[in-house]
Amino acid sequence: MPNLQVFENDPKPEAGPVVSDAAEPLVLEGQAASSAGAPRLRHVPNAVSAVALFAARLLVAVVQLRLVDKYWGGGYTGLNALSNQVLLYVTLLELGLSQSATTLLYEPILQRNFPRVSRIILALRHDVRLLAAAGSLVIVPAVAWYARGIHGALPLSTVMRTLICIAATGLLQLTAIHLQVYLNAAEQLDKVNYTFAAGYLLKTIIGLPLAIHWHNYLLLPLTIAVLTFGELVSLRIAFHHAFPQFQPGPWLDESRQIRKRAKFVMIQRVAGVAYYQSDFIILSITTSLVMVKDYAKFQYVAAALLSIVGLVAASLTTSVARLQLLQHAENRRRQYVTAQSAMCFIGAILMLAFWFSSATIVSLVFGQDPAVEWSAVLLFGVALFLNVVKVVDDIFIMAKGAFEIGYWVPAIEVPVYVVSGVLLSHRIGFAGILIASIATNLVVSIGLKGIVLSQPVFDSTKAQWYGNRILSIGSALLAVLPLACLYALAQRFLHPTFLRFVATNLLAFGYLLAGIRWILSRSSRYRLLER
Questions:
Q1: 459 vs 517: which has the higher pLDDT
Q2: Are residues 361 and 296 in contact, defined by beta-carbon separation less than 8 angstroms?
Q3: 368 Rama class: left (phi>0) / alpha (psi -120 to 50) / beta
Q4: Residue 254, class by beta-carbon neighbours within 10 Å (0-12 exposed, 13-18 middle, 19+ buried)?
Q5: pLDDT band at 327 (very low <50, low <70, confident <90, very high)
Q6: Alpha carbon of 361 to those of 245, 256, 358, 494, 501: distances in Å?
Q7: DSSP classification of residue 91
Q8: Which residues contact 531 (CB under 8 A, 6 or more apart)?
């Protein structure tokens, strides 16, 4: 999730957020800061495209996991699941430059300052490609070192070649990251989402049949790397269509500004990848690839639910940033409180859905009864709820570009999670990682954030922030109690399993939509009464 801003008439902006709690709302030239004069937001098509991308990713993950397990066995299934996390680590080579550039693009795009937009894009393209070229020199030894540390019966050469293909895919994606950044900052993220959705589907449709026909798993990661070129061409076309004013210009000053903020972005970026994408890697080292396979079945369900929340939230971040630019401090705080209430409600419903439906999904998708205890499923659900709740914080941090405020919080969060995850998973299996995630969320995401980020990022006092967070979580849990009762009754009285799964989750989806509508309408009524 990237995003926000800087003024053209300020050649050396600070890395902090443009909007402070005392700031006046931004008024564009020739435009009043009113609902009538505000720029048109594209949050709906962006959100729809995020759902489409989620559906494509989910379908591809399930198909690959099931077919790889069927034709090559559990070890290859674990290796296939591991590849996505390796890919995300490779993309860290951009060192936070893309998110930094995105936050700097909002202001000139709103002001239609095309020369400056071009300079920022050129600076980002140069710096990221330079980093990708330098990083490629260390990829092979890094992959070789990691491959030797994996516990499993697969040939070392197969593991190394697979990971090298995935790393090459990540390096190719980095060469076009400046195209994605502009489309995101210009609220045209739907073009990026649809491109990647089509890429996921084509890579699987072509790569899996080739690998199965020739009985060679390596053809799948090789196909993924080759077809990434098509994604790059598509993004390039979309970029030039969306930004025909792009032109060369001096970019060194913009590069300095991007790098200045990127050092703070990088901490957030590394923390996000390490926190959300280390579980497979930890298990592959502390247990085995077969254990990764068992864990992956439930983790894919939890990750799918969290992923759609994250994708939709990311697609809305640009719109949130623009609205924040046009509002006073108190209105910005109310926007955050409303978003927090909605996110807590969403998280509570997803937690219930996971508790009562994840085992059914695993059985239907993978064709076997889940080999996971109910206590582990409960832990999965609680961890999912807490991770969903904190998505709203990430949206507003990135919408304000406030990466330098409390940048050290992730530096505490990630080591606590990784170290406790390694120690606990070594002793009690993957339940240890879930316990580590829950404890880290409670101590850091709720404990420290309220102290450090409440005023400068969320426009709240510490008491307001803690009070709103606790009230939002408590209200959400109480609001879903009727739904929990219906889920429990359905387990006893509604059969067969598939009918129960469809009926209960359709009801939960309707309940979610009704709740979100009520939260938003309540906020709108409050604003009208104030006026």
A1: 517
A2: no
A3: beta
A4: buried
A5: low
A6: 48, 49, 5, 17, 9
A7: G
A8: none
ω into residue 496 within 30 of 0, thus cis?
yes
- State pTM to two decimals: 0.72
CA distance 475 to 481: 10
Separation of first and last alpha carbons in the chain: 34
**pLDDT at residue 268 greater than cutoff 90:** no
Residue 220, C-beta contacts closer than 8 angstroms, at least 6 positions apart: 64, 68, 80, 207, 208, 210, 211
How open is the CA angle 392-416-447, to the nearest 5 degrees? 45
Instruction: Output phi, psi for 144, to 5 deg.
Output: -65, -40
DSSP state, 154?
S
* Per-residue model confidence (pLDDT) at position 141: 83
371 CB contacts (<8 Å, ≥6 apart)? Answer: 294
Neighbours of 245 (CB within 10 A): 10
Number of other residues whose CB lies within 10 A of the CB of residue 296: 26
Angle, CA of 238, 239 and 241, to the nearest 5°: 65
CB count, 10 Å around CB of 474? 11
Residue 36 has φ and ψ, to the nearest 5°, of -75, -35
